[in-house]
Amino acid sequence: MSAAxxxxxxxxxxxxxxxxxxxxxxxxxxxxxxxxxAGIAAEDTRRTRKLLARFxxxxxxxxxxxxxxxxxxxxxxxxxxxxxxxxLVSDAGTPLVSDPGYxxxxxCAREGIEVVAVxxxxxxxxxxxxxxxPPHPFYFAGFLPRRQSARRxxxxxxxxxxxxxxxxxxxxxxxKSLLDMLEVLGDRPAAxxxxxxxxxxxxLRGSLSELAxxxxxxxxxxxxxxxxAGSGRQLDVDGGESGEVxxxxxxxxx
Length: 254
Ligand code: SAM
Prior knowledge:
Layout: H1 3-6, E1 13-16, H2 28-36, E2 39-42, H3 45-54, E3 61-63, H4 69-81, E4 86-89, H5 102-110, E5 115-118, H6 123-131, E6 138-143, H7 148-158, E7 164-169, H8 174-185, E8 189-194, E9 202-207, H9 208-217, E10 224-228, E11 234-235, E12 241-242, E13 244-247, E14 250-253
Helix pairs in contact: 4-5, 7-8, 8-9
The structure holds S-adenosylmethionine.
S-adenosylmethionine (SAM) binds at residues 20-21, 90, 92-94, 97-99, 122-124, 168-170, 193-198, 223-225.
């Protein structure tokens, strides 16, 4: 229901998750919301246009990306305050998860605007669900820094976490990052989930040294998530302590 039809002065912000590859993963509610709002704030309007075309959605697009976040957030909030419902999407997956959106959501929260989640795909949850590593607790680290010195410092700050750590990574840096993880974190159980929901979907499981060796043999392409088991004694799924994690039918001390 739009704000106008509710007869109230202020609209709402809908934070809408979109597919991470397979367009059939879009939810029925996401389509309904994207159809009914007055505008859709999108990271890359060309990319979102393809999604909208697939589902015959004609809603106008507004540009909202990391380079215009501050000014665009203000414009969108003004529009919502004038009574329009607006949706926020990113190029893929859930907005704000290593994607723009935080400024807009926090501004809405500060101004008392209702922010509604329309949940759906996110690579962190998809990867965690298939990796075969202890799923909780987990720590989402997002992207590591590009520069090696900063990357290693970031890894050092995570080294003592007693839980599975999830990283987003680019194909250009994956081989170097796996080697840095091996050196800084030690040879822990790990997994690499690639191209999830797409044609070349693959989950590689093994120790960090095995994954680093695999990445050194031939380039690993596509979008990928790296998951690394926690240090020391990681809590198992029942809340007890498990001293080892099973990878490829072998039990590796964690
Ligand atoms: N907001 C998105 C989400 O909810 O997952 C993440 C956006 S971030 C800019 C893009 C990164 O997410 C990629 O570099 C990769 O690490 C991960 N990713 C996105 N789609 C993926 C897929 N289909 N398979 C594996 N990883 C993916």
